[in-house]
């Protein structure tokens, strides 16, 4: 295995972008990456957004949440599959952190699915809106958000550990997957 520095810059860049996109950062006063989970959770627990007079804001929020959840479910599931495929190509010697990160991404996807289920289904939007006005429901959702954040943090740590090992075969990231992580890991940052 060659050292990381001996391989193409784009191979290293994909991994760095994944770590960067998942990490905590700010953009125009909004929390991004892992920090967006906290902002999402805090908003859920803020009573003023869920009063009877905030129905237009609540509807807007609900539309955004459904999109975020759809993206989290699909993206983390796809990322997990890709990491498992990559780990299989590498073999047991170099794949432990990638397999672990994949399992964490699968759990994020599962938690997002639970949140989506708890919010409700689109055919009965009025019921969804009423459901969210209950503090207990939002507290349960906030707890699931904490679990999802913890799994993304664990996946991030696995990817960092993998990068720190200093070996990445050139064939890990084919050209077609150059922006795979950078695009999909960024999606959590749209929680606001």
Provide a descriptive summary of the structure in words.
This protein is mainly α and 192 residues long. It has one domain (7-190). 70% of the residues lie in helices and 3% in strands. The protein has seven helices and two strands. Strands 1-2 form a two-stranded antiparallel sheet. Helix 2 (35-45) packs antiparallel against helix 6 and helix 3 runs antiparallel to helix 7. The chain is elongated, with a radius of gyration of 18 Å. The protein starts with 8 loop residues before the first helix and ends in a 6-residue tail after the last helix. The relative contact order is 0.22.
Count of helices?
A: 7
Strand order of the largest sheet: 1-2
**Terminal Cα separation, in Å?**
42 Å
Domain count: 1
The coarse overall form would be elongated
In helices, the fraction of residues equals over 70%
Note the run of SSEs as H and E: HEEHHHHHH
Number of strands: 2
Structural class: mainly alpha
Strand content: under 5%
Low-confidence stretches: 1-11, 168-180, 182-192
Question: Which tags fit this structure?
Answer:
mainly alpha, two-stranded antiparallel sheet, 2 strands
Itemize the secondary structure elements and their pairings.
Layout: H1 9-22, E1 25-27, E2 30-32, H2 35-45, H3 55-90, H4 92-119, H5 125-132, H6 135-165, H7 180-186
Antiparallel strand pairs: 1-2
Summarize, please.
70% of the residues lie in helices and 3% in strands. The protein is mainly alpha-helical. A hairpin with a 2-residue loop joins strand 1 and strand 2.
